[in-house]
Amino acid sequence: MLIRASYWTWKIISGEQIPEPMPTAYLMLDGNCMYNCSYCTHARDSLSDNKFLSRITWKEIDLDSLLSMAHNFRRICFQVVNYNGALKDAKYVVEIVRENDKDIAISVSTRVLDKEDIDAIFESGASNLGIAIDVANSKLHRQYRGWDMDYTLELIEYGAQKYPNRITTHLIVGLGENDREIFEIFKKMKESNVEIALFAFTPIKGTKLEHAQMPPLERYRKIQILRYIMFEKALLPWVEFDEKGNISRLLYEESLETLDITKAFLTSGCKDCTRPFYNDRPGNNKEFYNVHSFISEYSTNKNE
Ligand code: SF4
Which residue from 25, 238, 258, 299 lies 20 to 30 Å from 17 (Cα-Cα)? Predict the structure, then answer.
């Protein structure tokens, strides 16, 4: 079993300091993925180095080091690449971490094959399960992920009914969908109490979509505000779309005084998930797509 830790997680586990709070540890169970998602560094045909997931470097660690430093975190998130035997390994590490600490939150993010996989992951002691939709346009979902979006939605619905408030889905903005398609998914997930973890598409060298562009920040901000109003403020906004299906107007019944809109720009997903620099490059003087802590507060990371 090959376990990797995101760079900052690895630093904490190695007893080093990082410049900001990071309540969730990010671990990856790595191997040769059986799937071939067009935007992923771990896709079967990807020419990327496996040590990357999104744009982050992941360093090898052993389970004992993780267990000895797990008390530094409120949540442990295992991103499980779908290699042969991955489910068995995922159940094993979740059981070990759960045994080590009965209260820590444990997320597993993986492409479950069927309902039995969902049950197996929760039976092993996981708190939350991330079942990614990733691609909001159903035609592109099949093209980029290789199976029907309806099947992904069926699995999410099964998990949401059987394990209420414990399913999160990942949604990537900028993979050819329009805002209306994202809004339709938001409404479905809201009905099923499924959390949305928003990502901005980030082209990575060696993947099929390495030459595609990130979505404009302005568009991403609109979608973050929409998610925030629907999921954090439990409001159903009035949304108008232009001829391309993108948001042209967004109205909601809450005065700006009470609505701290900057909170909308924070990383979304499971509780305490911050995913630092998944979609943003440190030190490039640009506003972050996903603000991972108020210390970095969507300001550029210039030294003010
Ligand atoms: S939302 Fe965050 S903590 Fe939850 S599964 Fe996704 S990456 Fe992990």
Answer: 299
How far is Cα 302 from Cα 281, in angstroms, rounded to an integer? 12
Helix (H, G, I), strand (E, B) or coil at 246: coil
Q: Burial code of 37-46, b = ≥16 C-beta within 10 A, e = fewer?
A: bbbbbbbeeb
Does 295 map to a domain?
Answer: no
Which residue, 43, 70, 55, is CA-closest to 6?
Answer: 55
Domain that holds residue 42: 2-215
User: Residue 287 is inside which H or E element, if any?
Assistant: none
| Residue 107 CB less than 6 A away from ligand 1 | yes
For residue range 110-164, what is the model confidence (pLDDT) as tens digits?
999 999 999 999 999 999 999 999 999 999 999 999 999 999 999 999 999 999 9
Q: Please tell me the residue having the least CA distance from ligand 1 atom 2.
A: 273
Integer Cα distance of 104 and 109 in angstroms: 16
Ligand 1 centroid – CA 18 distance (Å)? 20
Is residue 71 in a domain?
yes
Provide the CATH number for the domain around residue 9. 3.20.20.70
- Write the pLDDT tens digit of every residue in 59-114: 999 999 999 999 999 999 999 999 999 999 999 999 999 999 999 999 999 999 99
Cβ atoms of 279 and 290 closer than 8 Å: yes
130 lines ligand 1 (CB under 6 A): yes
Task: Please tell me the distance from the alpha carbon of residue 202 to that of residue 280, in angstroms, as a whole number.
Answer: 8
* pTM for the model: 0.92
Distance, CA 257 to ligand 1 centroid (Å)? 30
